[in-house]
Amino acid sequence: MAQLFAPRADVILRAAIVAAAALVIVIPGALWAWARGPAATGQYQVYRQPIPFAHPLHVNALKIDCRYCHAGAERTSMAGLPPTKACVPCHWESLVQSALFAPVRDSLATGRPIPWRRVTRVPDFVFFDHSAHARAAVACQTCHGPVDLMPEVYQAAPLTMEWCVDCHREPERHLATIAVGSSGWRRSDIEGGAELAARYDVRRLTSCTICHR
Ligand code: HEC
Ligand code: HEC
Ligand code: HEC
Ligand code: HEC
Ligand code: HEC
Q: Which of 19, 44, 59, 106 has a CB 3.0–4.6 Å from the CB of 148, allowing a cystine?
């Protein structure tokens, strides 16, 4: 009997199976990686701000505590951006003259806040609370990166659910021995975590309703 299929058919069939399998694995895999990558999460992106405010100068050189400008971080869910009057005590002379400080003058004249561009954000269906983290000795820099070295603030962490839950499963690996709100932060600052977790009675909060209420 004559062969139904050409001898090459076998090769073609095998190639087709391999290609189909590759599609099934590669496309979802690529989407999965993309959704967690910087392009989708906004990680590392910097934005033009109304005034080129420099954290390194104010935080490192002048040693201003983070909480002077982000006062809510310790007491409320929001860290908050600084009220315009926080800039005035040190910048009164430049406020009167320089073009750089025009947004500060406008804000003082109109009573409207300086339109700082938000960098770090989680979706509305996620509940986040700064004060709970400050109380548990999670340093600002553990989540926001070395802000004190950033000429322009960028989002240092991916802010995906995995990122939050990874720490919530083992918080003792991430608690910092430096005071929350101080400028410096080194990896070695999170080495005494187990002891801190015991001292502050830090729980492992992984149930869905902690972050989705
Ligand atoms: C504790 C004092 C202090 C506070 C508070 C403060 N600054 Fe400054 N800032 C300084 C000093 C000192 C300098 C460096 C000297 C200078 O250029 O005036 C500086 C420099 C700057 C510069 C660069 C100025 C230039 O001429 O290049 C900008 C912009 C600036 N600050 C914005 C702000 C804003 C906005 C706020 C409020 C959110 C603020 N600062 C709060 C002390 C302060
Ligand atoms: C003198 C005031 C001042 C101090 C001190 C200060 N900041 Fe800021 N911070 C600002 C201003 C103004 C902005 C908004 C402009 C910008 O993004 O640069 C800001 C923005 C930020 C943002 C981005 C907010 C967002 O939208 O996601 C983070 C994170 C941040 N600061 C963390 C810190 C940390 C951590 C410290 C201490 C190590 C600190 N800041 C100290 C004034 C301050
Ligand atoms: C556990 C991680 C974590 C820690 C610790 C943390 N932040 Fe945040 N921060 C976030 C997240 C997530 C957001 C976005 C919140 C949102 O969208 O509501 C944010 C937002 C901000 C903002 C933007 C304004 C706002 O309130 O939403 C500022 C400023 C800020 N953080 C400063 C700080 C400072 C200063 C500290 C330390 C005292 C700190 N953060 C500690 C995760 C953290
Ligand atoms: C670096 C570690 C770390 C990261 C990252 C982190 N958390 Fe937390 N979170 C903690 C610790 C520690 C506590 C306090 C546990 C306790 O109170 O015993 C906490 C507490 C909370 C609470 C308060 C729960 C309550 O009812 O008291 C909420 C809400 C929360 N986290 C949401 C988030 C979200 C949302 C993210 C991601 C955007 C996040 N956390 C990222 C460590 C972290
Ligand atoms: C520690 C905080 C935290 C806990 C606990 C948590 N989530 Fe989330 N969840 C988040 C954050 C943050 C996002 C937003 C992620 C993003 O925008 O990429 C999210 C997003 C989601 C989404 C939207 C789809 C997605 O992946 O972006 C779903 C659905 C979800 N969570 C379900 C759950 C369920 C079910 C649980 C319990 C098993 C849970 N979450 C526990 C922080 C948390």
A: 59
Structure tokens at 4: 């139904």
Q: Give the whole-angstrom CA distance, residue 117 versus residue 120.
A: 10
Compute the distance between CA of residue 70 and CA of residue 54 in angstroms, rounded to an integer. 15
Closest CA to 195 of 178, 177, 168: 177
Q: Which residue has the tokens 């991430």?
A: 174
CA-wise closest residue to 159 among 27, 70, 35, 32 = 35
Return d(Cα 47, Cα 116) in angstroms, integer: 10
Per-residue pLDDT tens for 23-71? 888 888 888 888 878 878 889 888 899 999 999 999 988 989 999 999 9
Cα 56 to the center of its chain, rounded Å: 18
User: Which ligand approaches the C-alpha of residue 154 most closely?
Assistant: 2
Query: Cα–chain-centroid distance for residue 55?
Result: 16
Contact 74, 179 (CB under 8 A): no
Q: Is the CB of 54 under 6 A from ligand 5?
A: no
Is 59 near ligand 1, meaning CB less than 6 Å away? no
Place of tokens 């802010």: 159
